[in-house]
What does this fold into?
Amino acid sequence: MAATCNRKVVTTAIAASVDAASKAASEPGVAFVVPESMYLKDATKEADFASFPLIPVTVNKETQAVTESSSRLTEEIIKEHTGALGSICYVVQTGVDDKGLAEFTEFYPYPLYKDAELNFYKALGSRKLSIPFNPFKLVGGIFSLIGISGRLKEKKIEGNLVGEGIKQGGVIIFDKLGKPKFAYYEKTGKELPVDDILAALQAVKNEQKQLNGQ
It folds into this structure.
Protein backbone atom coordinates (compact mmCIF):
# COMPACT_ATOMS: atom_id res chain seq x y z
CA MET A 1 0.00 0.00 0.00
CA ALA A 2 1.45 3.34 -1.01
CA ALA A 3 0.28 6.68 0.25
CA THR A 4 0.98 10.23 -0.84
CA CYS A 5 -0.73 12.62 1.45
CA ASN A 6 -1.14 15.74 3.49
CA ARG A 7 1.07 14.16 6.10
CA LYS A 8 -0.26 16.16 9.07
CA VAL A 9 -3.88 15.13 8.52
CA VAL A 10 -3.84 11.42 7.78
CA THR A 11 -0.88 10.21 9.82
CA THR A 12 -2.80 8.28 12.45
CA ALA A 13 -5.31 6.89 9.96
CA ILE A 14 -2.56 5.49 7.74
CA ALA A 15 -0.83 3.80 10.65
CA ALA A 16 -4.15 2.40 11.86
CA SER A 17 -4.98 1.00 8.42
CA VAL A 18 -1.58 -0.67 8.17
CA ASP A 19 -1.89 -2.30 11.59
CA ALA A 20 -5.45 -3.41 10.92
CA ALA A 21 -4.50 -4.73 7.50
CA SER A 22 -1.73 -6.88 8.90
CA LYS A 23 -4.19 -8.41 11.38
CA ALA A 24 -6.88 -8.96 8.76
CA ALA A 25 -4.41 -10.64 6.44
CA SER A 26 -3.80 -13.31 9.07
CA GLU A 27 -7.49 -14.20 9.38
CA PRO A 28 -8.49 -16.87 6.81
CA GLY A 29 -11.85 -16.79 5.10
CA VAL A 30 -12.59 -13.12 5.73
CA ALA A 31 -14.54 -11.70 2.78
CA PHE A 32 -14.69 -8.01 1.90
CA VAL A 33 -16.69 -6.10 -0.71
CA VAL A 34 -14.63 -3.29 -2.18
CA PRO A 35 -16.65 -0.04 -2.39
CA GLU A 36 -16.60 2.24 -5.43
CA SER A 37 -14.62 4.80 -3.44
CA MET A 38 -11.58 2.55 -3.97
CA TYR A 39 -11.92 2.15 -7.75
CA LEU A 40 -9.04 3.42 -9.89
CA LYS A 41 -9.41 6.57 -11.96
CA ASP A 42 -7.87 6.86 -15.43
CA ALA A 43 -4.84 8.90 -14.31
CA THR A 44 -3.92 6.17 -11.83
CA LYS A 45 -4.57 3.31 -14.27
CA GLU A 46 -2.38 4.86 -16.96
CA ALA A 47 0.56 5.84 -14.73
CA ASP A 48 3.83 3.99 -15.31
CA PHE A 49 4.60 3.43 -11.62
CA ALA A 50 7.42 0.96 -12.25
CA SER A 51 9.63 3.65 -13.79
CA PHE A 52 9.00 6.37 -11.18
CA PRO A 53 12.19 7.30 -9.29
CA LEU A 54 11.91 7.58 -5.50
CA ILE A 55 14.45 8.80 -2.96
CA PRO A 56 14.63 7.05 0.44
CA VAL A 57 14.40 9.61 3.24
CA THR A 58 15.50 9.28 6.87
CA VAL A 59 14.85 11.80 9.64
CA ASN A 60 16.91 12.39 12.77
CA LYS A 61 14.23 13.03 15.38
CA GLU A 62 16.62 14.85 17.71
CA THR A 63 18.20 17.26 15.23
CA GLN A 64 15.30 17.15 12.70
CA ALA A 65 17.91 16.71 9.98
CA VAL A 66 16.64 15.01 6.81
CA THR A 67 18.96 12.70 4.87
CA GLU A 68 18.30 11.53 1.31
CA SER A 69 19.78 8.36 -0.19
CA SER A 70 20.34 7.37 -3.82
CA SER A 71 17.28 7.32 -6.04
CA ARG A 72 15.61 3.96 -6.73
CA LEU A 73 12.83 2.77 -9.01
CA THR A 74 9.38 2.31 -7.52
CA GLU A 75 9.21 -1.21 -8.97
CA GLU A 76 12.06 -2.37 -6.70
CA ILE A 77 10.62 -0.69 -3.62
CA ILE A 78 7.11 -2.10 -4.03
CA LYS A 79 8.43 -5.65 -4.33
CA GLU A 80 10.37 -5.20 -1.09
CA HIS A 81 7.32 -4.07 0.85
CA THR A 82 4.72 -6.43 -0.61
CA GLY A 83 3.82 -9.16 1.83
CA ALA A 84 5.05 -7.20 4.84
CA LEU A 85 3.25 -4.17 6.24
CA GLY A 86 3.64 -2.75 2.77
CA SER A 87 2.92 0.90 3.53
CA ILE A 88 4.95 3.71 1.99
CA CYS A 89 4.35 7.43 2.40
CA TYR A 90 5.76 9.51 -0.43
CA VAL A 91 7.03 12.81 0.93
CA VAL A 92 6.62 15.54 -1.66
CA GLN A 93 9.19 18.02 -0.35
CA THR A 94 12.11 18.25 2.02
CA GLY A 95 13.85 21.40 3.18
CA VAL A 96 10.55 23.30 3.46
CA ASP A 97 9.00 21.90 6.63
CA ASP A 98 11.54 19.45 8.02
CA LYS A 99 10.25 20.11 11.53
CA GLY A 100 6.82 18.94 10.43
CA LEU A 101 8.37 15.89 8.79
CA ALA A 102 10.19 15.06 12.04
CA GLU A 103 6.87 15.31 13.90
CA PHE A 104 5.29 13.07 11.29
CA THR A 105 7.75 10.27 12.02
CA GLU A 106 6.57 10.23 15.64
CA PHE A 107 3.23 8.89 14.41
CA TYR A 108 4.32 7.05 11.25
CA PRO A 109 7.16 4.56 11.93
CA TYR A 110 7.29 3.19 8.37
CA PRO A 111 9.62 3.86 5.40
CA LEU A 112 9.49 7.30 3.81
CA TYR A 113 10.37 8.22 0.24
CA LYS A 114 10.61 11.50 -1.61
CA ASP A 115 8.74 11.77 -4.90
CA ALA A 116 10.80 14.66 -6.27
CA GLU A 117 9.03 14.71 -9.63
CA LEU A 118 5.53 14.52 -8.07
CA ASN A 119 4.73 11.47 -10.20
CA PHE A 120 2.46 9.89 -7.59
CA TYR A 121 0.70 13.19 -7.02
CA LYS A 122 0.05 13.43 -10.77
CA ALA A 123 -1.14 9.81 -10.86
CA LEU A 124 -3.71 10.74 -8.22
CA GLY A 125 -5.07 13.55 -10.39
CA SER A 126 -2.90 16.55 -9.38
CA ARG A 127 -5.59 17.72 -7.00
CA LYS A 128 -5.27 20.58 -4.51
CA LEU A 129 -7.32 21.78 -1.57
CA SER A 130 -9.29 24.71 -2.96
CA ILE A 131 -12.11 26.89 -1.66
CA PRO A 132 -13.82 28.76 -4.56
CA PHE A 133 -15.23 32.23 -3.94
CA ASN A 134 -18.81 31.05 -3.56
CA PRO A 135 -20.59 31.93 -0.27
CA PHE A 136 -22.02 28.45 0.24
CA LYS A 137 -18.91 26.52 -0.84
CA LEU A 138 -16.74 28.93 1.13
CA VAL A 139 -18.59 28.12 4.36
CA GLY A 140 -18.37 24.39 3.62
CA GLY A 141 -14.64 24.67 2.97
CA ILE A 142 -14.05 26.57 6.19
CA PHE A 143 -15.93 23.96 8.20
CA SER A 144 -13.86 21.23 6.53
CA LEU A 145 -10.67 22.93 7.70
CA ILE A 146 -12.15 23.38 11.19
CA GLY A 147 -13.00 19.67 11.22
CA ILE A 148 -9.42 18.79 10.30
CA SER A 149 -8.07 21.05 13.04
CA GLY A 150 -10.39 19.50 15.61
CA ARG A 151 -9.38 15.93 14.78
CA LEU A 152 -5.70 16.84 14.90
CA LYS A 153 -6.15 18.30 18.38
CA GLU A 154 -8.03 15.19 19.55
CA LYS A 155 -5.13 13.01 18.37
CA LYS A 156 -2.55 15.45 19.77
CA ILE A 157 -1.08 16.09 16.32
CA GLU A 158 0.11 19.57 15.41
CA GLY A 159 -0.79 20.61 11.87
CA ASN A 160 -0.08 23.37 9.37
CA LEU A 161 -0.16 24.00 5.63
CA VAL A 162 3.57 24.66 5.20
CA GLY A 163 5.16 23.22 2.06
CA GLU A 164 2.81 20.84 0.25
CA GLY A 165 0.05 20.92 2.86
CA ILE A 166 -2.64 21.96 0.36
CA LYS A 167 -1.93 19.16 -2.10
CA GLN A 168 -4.36 16.24 -1.98
CA GLY A 169 -2.90 12.78 -2.26
CA GLY A 170 -4.35 9.42 -1.38
CA VAL A 171 -3.64 5.72 -0.97
CA ILE A 172 -2.77 3.36 -3.82
CA ILE A 173 -2.86 -0.40 -3.30
CA PHE A 174 -0.59 -2.50 -5.52
CA ASP A 175 -0.37 -6.23 -6.11
CA LYS A 176 2.98 -7.96 -5.66
CA LEU A 177 3.90 -7.26 -9.29
CA GLY A 178 3.60 -3.53 -8.70
CA LYS A 179 0.32 -3.10 -10.61
CA PRO A 180 -2.15 -0.62 -9.05
CA LYS A 181 -5.39 -2.38 -8.11
CA PHE A 182 -7.30 0.12 -5.99
CA ALA A 183 -6.91 3.70 -4.80
CA TYR A 184 -8.48 6.14 -2.38
CA TYR A 185 -8.35 9.81 -3.36
CA GLU A 186 -7.96 12.12 -0.37
CA LYS A 187 -10.94 14.39 0.36
CA THR A 188 -10.63 17.63 2.29
CA GLY A 189 -11.89 17.28 5.86
CA LYS A 190 -12.42 13.51 5.61
CA GLU A 191 -10.49 10.83 7.47
CA LEU A 192 -9.14 7.84 5.60
CA PRO A 193 -11.82 5.12 5.19
CA VAL A 194 -9.89 2.38 6.97
CA ASP A 195 -12.59 -0.27 6.38
CA ASP A 196 -12.64 0.46 2.64
CA ILE A 197 -8.85 0.21 2.47
CA LEU A 198 -8.97 -3.10 4.35
CA ALA A 199 -11.55 -4.41 1.90
CA ALA A 200 -9.30 -3.51 -1.03
CA LEU A 201 -6.27 -5.13 0.62
CA GLN A 202 -8.24 -8.30 1.25
CA ALA A 203 -9.48 -8.34 -2.36
CA VAL A 204 -5.90 -8.17 -3.65
CA LYS A 205 -4.90 -10.95 -1.25
CA ASN A 206 -7.81 -13.16 -2.38
CA GLU A 207 -6.96 -12.56 -6.05
CA GLN A 208 -3.37 -13.62 -5.41
CA LYS A 209 -4.56 -16.79 -3.65
CA GLN A 210 -6.69 -17.69 -6.67
CA LEU A 211 -3.75 -17.17 -9.01
CA ASN A 212 -1.66 -19.44 -6.79
CA GLY A 213 -4.40 -22.08 -6.83
CA GLN A 214 -5.03 -21.88 -3.08
Notes: The longest helix spans residues 135-154. Confidence is low (pLDDT under 50) at residues 6-19, 131-149. The two ends are 23 Å apart (CA to CA).
